[in-house]
Design goal:
Rossmann fold; Elongation Factor Tu (Ef-tu), domain 3; 8-stranded antiparallel sheet; globular; binds guanosine-5'-triphosphate
């Protein structure tokens, strides 16, 4: 580390904020991301998710298929500065078929914002992702989106969130009407009415300070037919809630709630202000060797995501590193825990989706992309000091399987190359049939859409047309002995496939076959993922 950086180090780390946006599909994560980076000054015109022809696409849905389908398939990282803070924002996909990517991304975040669609309330994926945040113990903001549409009554919605998620809500703002009646928000803490004028963009965000609910300005600005109910609701909320406690938020006991409309860019800045006031700086992280603290001078980090072909011109592959302590410097040498040797981090970048900017220095809390020539796997730990191993990043057991084949034999090698790449990203899992070999590989996924993305990417990025023949398997297990060593001689008539790391894996039609295998091989641990197998456990928690 150069001497020059030393005086700023602590400030730089403490101004980092790293957070993920999570929710059920379609709640508006990508739309909110677009507006957040607009406020952060990264873009000067906000794009749209699946806008009309000719409209700018949303920045974080950079993959062509995402733009066509209007859904997020892979998480994206975007950095921006806001009110003196350096924010690392992670937009995640909501669809359950891509949830492994979302889970991995959450490991890199220090806080999360949970989006709720005002009409739909707490949906199934939101519930699941909330549980992951709870398990990881990260503080959660709640943003109730799409207030420009008709929705559930706000009090009912808060009640639903509290009872379904078993989480206490603390509404910072309150909606004044919804849908056709939506007139703005009341900022309870600042005692301000934020006016919403749907057709007058320039007026969005007009702020009316009030002395309280008795202020005559309410009558001046808000329609009489909704005012009594709104006042009644706010009185009730004011009467029930005490002072806001930042400690309770940071310990995950309470979630500050704010309302808005991402699409209309209404109250997104209100959320950002709340975020900058409350969000935590980088938190300490556990490693097998002990805790790593962000202000430790030794650089440490882990890879939570790998993505190839983001930039078609370069056909490169980027490993995304969450820095956990110390300072990162371009070109630095680090110790790679899994490889057990030193490597140089030559090219490094920070991102606005696929646009990249060379980064020379980064600090604990930041996410940097390093150019990867094949040294990295998801979950790898790196450090400038003594080797550390961060927690394992879970891999999901695949449940759908298919054999891939190409009619043009000349393209087999290309298929293997493409598949190796896509499986190293964790987008599919790759298995080799011992009798057939690598020319007709088997892939396993958690959800159907992953197959679709695979075929699309093989065609789009590698120019290969692939036939996909579904197989009857539904279960994959990695057989290990008590010491975590791979077992290759199972009792019973089982075929052992090989995974992408050449580890033996059992592919089975049904749970019943697994029970049979367990009965025949009582001393064998049938691990549901390679990460679990390596740690000698049958399953990793979340
Ligand atoms: N009316 C209205 N529509 C919105 C709002 N926010 C988002 N939308 C629309 O909701 C749809 C889904 O938005 P996205 O931002 O793609 O949702 P997402 O949560 O990123 O979806 P996934 O990434 O696929 O999980 C799009 O058509 C948006 O234009 C809002 O505040 N009001
Ligand atoms: Mg999205």
């Amino acid at each position: 580390m150069s001497e020059l950086n030393v005086p700023n180090f602590e400030n730089e780390v403490l101004r980092r904020r790293t957070f993920a946006i999570i929710s059920h599909p379609d709640a508006g994560k990508t739309t909110l991301t677009e507006k957040l980076i607009y406020h952060g000054g990264v873009i000067h015109e906000a794009g749209e998710v699946k806008g009309k022809a000719g409209t700018k696409a949303a920045t974080s849905d950079w993959m062509a298929l995402e733009q066509q389908r209007g859904i997020s398939i892979t998480s994206s990282v975007i950095q921006f500065d806001y009110r003196g803070q350096r924010v690392n924002l992670l937009d995640t996909p909501g669809h359950k078929d891509f949830s492994e990517d979302t889970y991995r991304t959450l490991v890199a975040a220090d806080s999360a914002v949970m989006l709720i669609d005002v009409a739909k309330g707490v949906e199934e994926r939101t519930k699941k992702l909330y549980e992951v945040c709870r398990y990881r113990n990260i503080p959660i903001f709640t943003f109730i989106n799409k207030c420009d549409r008709e929705g559930k009554l706000p009090l009912e919605l808060i009640d639903e969130i509290e009872s379904t998620l078993k989480m206490n809500c603390y509404p910072m703002t309150w909606p004044i009407g919804l849908g056709g009646q939506f007139q703005g928000l009341y900022h309870r803490l600042r005692k301000e009415i934020l006016l919403y004028h749907p057709k007058h963009e320039e007026k969005i965000g007009e702020i009316i300070p009030v002395s309280g609910l008795d202020d005559p300005k309410w009558e001046e600005y808000i329609s009489p037919h909704i005012l009594p109910q709104v006042k009644e609701e706010i009185e009730l909320v004011d009467g029930t809630l005490g002072e806001f406690s930042k400690e309770k938020f940071l310990s995950g006991e309470i979630s500050p709630v704010t309302f808005g409309s991402a699409k209309q860019n209404f109250a997104v800045d209100t959320f950002l202000d709340l975020f900058t006031d409350l969000s935590p700086p980088p938190a300490p992280r556990k490693t097998k060797e002990g805790e790593v603290r962000p202000l430790d001078k030794t650089f440490t980090g882990f890879v939570f995501k790998i993505q190839a072909n983001m930039d078609r011109r370069h056909r490169d592959r980027v490993a995304f590193v969450r820095i956990c302590s110390g300072t990162f410097e371009r070109g630095m040498k680090v110790n790679h825990a899994r490889l057990g040797r030193e490597i140089r981090l030559a090219h490094s970048a920070q991102f606005v989706a696929q646009e990249r900017e060379t980064v020379d220095t980064a600090y604990a809390g930041d996410i940097v992309g390093v150019n990867d020539t094949g040294n990295f796997q998801i979950g790898d730990s790196i450090t400038s000091g003594k080797i550390v191993h961060f927690e394992d990043i879970p891999k999901f057991p695949p449940e759908l399987f298919a054999k891939l084949s190409v009619s043009d034999a000349m393209k087999r090698q290309k298929l293997q190359k493409g598949l190796k790449q896509i499986s190293e990203e964790g987008a599919v899992q790759l298995f080799i049939d011992p009798f057939i070999g690598a020319q007709d590989p088997v892939v396993g996924v958690v959800g159907e859409l992953q197959f679709e993305v695979l075929l699309y990417r093989l065609q789009d990025e590698y120019n290969i047309d692939v036939r996909l023949n579904r197989l009857g398997f539904t279960v994959a297990r990695w057989p290990r002995d008590k010491d975590g060593n791979p077992v290759t001689n199972l009792n019973g008539n089982f075929t052992l496939y090989r995974d992408m790391n050449d580890q033996p894996v059992l592919l089975l039609d049904k749970e019943w076959d697994l029970n049979w295998a367990k009965k025949e091989n009582p001393d064998v641990i049938f691990a549901s993922s390679i990460t679990a197998a390596r740690t000698g456990k049958a399953q990793l928690e979340l």
